[in-house]
Fold this sequence. Notes:
The chain is α+β, with helices and mostly antiparallel strands. It has five helices and ten strands. It has two domains: 11-72; 83-216, MucB/RseB, C-terminal domain (Phosphorylase Kinase, domain 1, 2-Layer Sandwich).
Amino acid sequence: MAPHDQHEPSERDRWLVNRLRQAREAERAPARLRWRIEAERRGAKSHTRRRVPYAAAIAGALAGLALMLVLVLPTGTPTSPSVSQAAQLAARGPTDPAPRPDPAASRKLAAELQHVYFPNWSAVFGMPATGQRSDRLEGRPAVTVFYRWRGRRVAYTLVGAPALAQPDAPVTRRGGLDLRTFRVDGRRVVTWQRAGLTCVLSAARVPAVALRHWAAWRAPGVNG
């Protein structure tokens, strides 16, 4: 008789394995635990169904609040134009002939806004005035004089008081002025304040150092 293989399960081992498999297939969770799981599943479904109407109610309440604010708060509050808007006026080009030099002061042009003059740069910088235009910028008067420098157009815009808020841009101190330099629509812009007005000097393909140099210039012996 062949010796018994110690790795082959005995008949008793096979019986125990079979009983464990049957017990695993037949055994179910206790009734109390099954009831709790089913109750939580039904509650989760009910919560999901309630969530949609609740969210819709919140959205409706917020819309009503927004409408109430529109009805209560004042409308038509005036807003201040920006320096960028003032610089964009130059892109429209001149509509009127260039102002002539002031007969009483050759370093000034016969054009001004609220007692602030436009400089005559023809003799000092070789920049003759070539045209001008007048606009309204959200209620403020705005006058622009155009100059020619090396075949390029330079625009000098004065915007009436009160002065516009200055942009968040690098500041250069020259001639007692805070000159702020930035770009808008492909144009380099230098802006500052003068006698309560906003001055905006802008041009395309013109160095910022040149714009700042012109901005800081003052006609000798001329006020305003």
